Amino acid sequence: MSDIESTPQAGVGGGRRWLALVFICLAQLMVVLDVTIVNIALPSAQADLDFSDGDRQWVVTAYTLAFGSLLLLGGRLADYTGRRRAFIIGTIGFAAASALGGAAGSFELLLAARALQGVFGALLAPAALSLLAVTFTETHERAKAFGIFGGIAAGGGAIGLLLGGWLTDAFDWRWCMYVNCVIAFLALCGTALLPNPRASHGVRLDLPGVLLVTTGLVAIVYGLSEAESEGWSSGMVLGPITLGVLLLAAFAVVEARTAEPLLRLRVVWDRTRGTAYLSAAIAMIGMLGTMFLLTFYIQIVKGYSPVKAGVSFLPMTLAVAVAAGGIASRLLPRVPPRALMTPGMLISACGLTWLTRLEPDSGYAEVPLVGMLLIGLGMGLVMAPAMNYATHGVGAEDAGVASGMVNTGQQIGGSIATALLNTLAANATTDYISDHMTRPGDQAVLQAGLVEGYTTAFAWAAGILAVGSLVIAALMNTPRPNPGAQAAGSGDPVPVHLG
């Protein structure tokens, strides 16, 4: 299977591996926090660049469209060109795009910069995850490393809210972009420590597959992004989503018949890996949906400043870190992944259910804090094994694209969360206000209507996670790994060329 077989310490000392993990996680943090860091800065950017409320969503959508639709291509390019090289190119490109966005003097230039961030993020994210997979192959170390990495994947959005609020208040909205240059520089300082798995040279890129999957994912993410403003029955929503599904179906047919496919279908159809991708998507519905709606509640209803709103999410981030890095990393070598994923989703569902108790005058410690702690604990238990088993048993030639799949799952889940939960919240708010408004401009009714919308969305998200926990329990079939095995749940050793 390999040109050079690795051992757990093949040429890389234990201390160097853990130091390499720091730099890999820095790159992952940069990609993840950019999903949310701009959210808090948007009002300041809008006032500075003078763009409309209707255009505002595109600052977020431009990033998620490019990122989500190009992840599979980015993962395959990492396989073909070498993952360390892809990591370096992705990091430098992401930093350059961020600098362009920070210096933008017009809305169009900011939009182009956000799209470029997504393009290079789609190369960087799968390269980082696949590098992690070949850096840590011993069971216990692998579990701990993926616990830390999964914690960042789940909690990076909350860190983005905190960092975005502080940078916007203390400096300027442009620093929400410039900060990536600092993080990228730090990440690049450790590239000499990274393993250099041998690239898959002499393999042709599957251009029909690239075209079909990219346009299909763009259509789906675009359709979902339009649902909040256009409504689910609109042709602007149903048309792109239907087109995207058809294109992805055509992609599956083409891949099954292509000698050198972009995505070997066995990567997805494997129950363990496929369930890992599904769990990442479901987890993001709960995580991003919660952060997005709670941000509105905390700032609009409770009147928190951007910095105070960001600080209020810190407990969720800490809960994710404790669950992923402290609990999951210790249990993952000893128990099957569904023993963590299923209760993790149920715990998060309980947190979302608790948030349905929100009232306009609810105290922070009374409802939001408890809900965020439960959601964070649950997400940490889900994301650590999801990241670990995303590359379960794949050969080195497919590690990049397998890593891209789990990131694609997160992006689709996040898009569904934003579209579905915001639409549910908006409809519930509109119905409540129309039923209860007796005099125009009644602020008490307006605030109660907003809270009614948020709690309705939280109830739906809780139901989705509860159903998701049952699906994961039924589908995830990985047996309990042997603590003495070389890699948690993996098959053959991953071929690595260390240089």
From TrEMBL:
<dbReference type="GO" id="GO:0046677">
    <property type="term" value="P:response to antibiotic"/>
</dbReference>
<feature type="transmembrane region" description="Helical">
    <location>
        <begin position="339"/>
        <end position="355"/>
    </location>
</feature>
<feature type="transmembrane region" description="Helical">
    <location>
        <begin position="86"/>
        <end position="105"/>
    </location>
</feature>
<keyword id="KW-0046">Antibiotic resistance</keyword>
<dbReference type="InterPro" id="IPR011701">
    <property type="entry name" value="MFS"/>
</dbReference>
<feature type="transmembrane region" description="Helical">
    <location>
        <begin position="367"/>
        <end position="384"/>
    </location>
</feature>
<dbReference type="Pfam" id="PF07690">
    <property type="entry name" value="MFS_1"/>
</dbReference>
<feature type="transmembrane region" description="Helical">
    <location>
        <begin position="457"/>
        <end position="476"/>
    </location>
</feature>
<feature type="domain" description="Major facilitator superfamily (MFS) profile">
    <location>
        <begin position="20"/>
        <end position="480"/>
    </location>
</feature>
<feature type="transmembrane region" description="Helical">
    <location>
        <begin position="177"/>
        <end position="195"/>
    </location>
</feature>
<feature type="transmembrane region" description="Helical">
    <location>
        <begin position="207"/>
        <end position="225"/>
    </location>
</feature>
<feature type="transmembrane region" description="Helical">
    <location>
        <begin position="312"/>
        <end position="332"/>
    </location>
</feature>
<keyword id="KW-1133">Transmembrane helix</keyword>
<feature type="transmembrane region" description="Helical">
    <location>
        <begin position="146"/>
        <end position="165"/>
    </location>
</feature>
<feature type="transmembrane region" description="Helical">
    <location>
        <begin position="111"/>
        <end position="134"/>
    </location>
</feature>
<dbReference type="InterPro" id="IPR020846">
    <property type="entry name" value="MFS_dom"/>
</dbReference>
<keyword id="KW-0813">Transport</keyword>
<keyword id="KW-0472">Membrane</keyword>
<dbReference type="InterPro" id="IPR036259">
    <property type="entry name" value="MFS_trans_sf"/>
</dbReference>
<keyword id="KW-0812">Transmembrane</keyword>
<dbReference type="GO" id="GO:0022857">
    <property type="term" value="F:transmembrane transporter activity"/>
</dbReference>
<dbReference type="GO" id="GO:0005886">
    <property type="term" value="C:plasma membrane"/>
</dbReference>
<dbReference type="InterPro" id="IPR004638">
    <property type="entry name" value="EmrB-like"/>
</dbReference>
<feature type="transmembrane region" description="Helical">
    <location>
        <begin position="18"/>
        <end position="42"/>
    </location>
</feature>
<feature type="transmembrane region" description="Helical">
    <location>
        <begin position="275"/>
        <end position="300"/>
    </location>
</feature>
<keyword id="KW-1003">Cell membrane</keyword>
<protein>
    <submittedName>
        <fullName>DHA2 family efflux MFS transporter permease subunit</fullName>
    </submittedName>
</protein>
<feature type="transmembrane region" description="Helical">
    <location>
        <begin position="57"/>
        <end position="74"/>
    </location>
</feature>
<feature type="transmembrane region" description="Helical">
    <location>
        <begin position="231"/>
        <end position="254"/>
    </location>
</feature>
